[in-house]
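Now for a sample.
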Amino acid sequence: MSGRWTTPEQDPRTYGNPVSELETYREYLGNYRLTIELKCDGLGADELARRSVPPSTLSLLGLVRHLAQVENHWFQRVLQGQTDGPRLYKSDEDRDLDFNGARPDPALVEDAFTTWKAEIAKADEWLDTRSDSDLGEQVRVHDETASVRDILVHVIEEYARHAGHADLLRESIDGRTGQ
C-alpha cells in the first residue's frame, strides 16, 4: 500500500467542522477540488489524457477541462450573469470538446490546469463576498430559477461524481487508490 495514500500530514484537505452553511459548502467544494488535483498529481500528459474504456472519451485531463467549464458556467455565467464570450471547452460543433479535445499534449495540460485554477480563483473571489443570508437568492437558470444554495450543492455534487471517476481512472493508470 506504500505510495498509494497521502499521509494525514501531507493531505491538503481540511476537515474543520465549519459552523455556517456557506462555510460547510466551501469546505466540501475545496476538498473535492483538492481531491481532483491529488488524482492528477505526478502524471504526465500521456497518462492524464489516457481514456477510460472505448468508446468513452473520459480522461483525467478531460475531467480537469470539464471542471474548469463547470466552474466558469455556474459561478461566472449563471451566478454573476457574465454571459459574454464563448463557453470554455465547448463549441457549436462539439459540445463535448472538454473531453474530446483532451489530447496528450503538454501545452494542453498546462492550459487546462491554468484555466481550471483561474476559474477556481474567480469563483472563490465571488464566494468571499457572500454570506449565509445570500444562499436563498434566486437566479435564472435557463427558463427557471434556482437558489444560490441549490447551485452550490449542484457544483459540489458535480465534483463528487467526477472525483469517483477520477479515482477509477487513476487506479487504471498506475494502481494508485485513495485520497
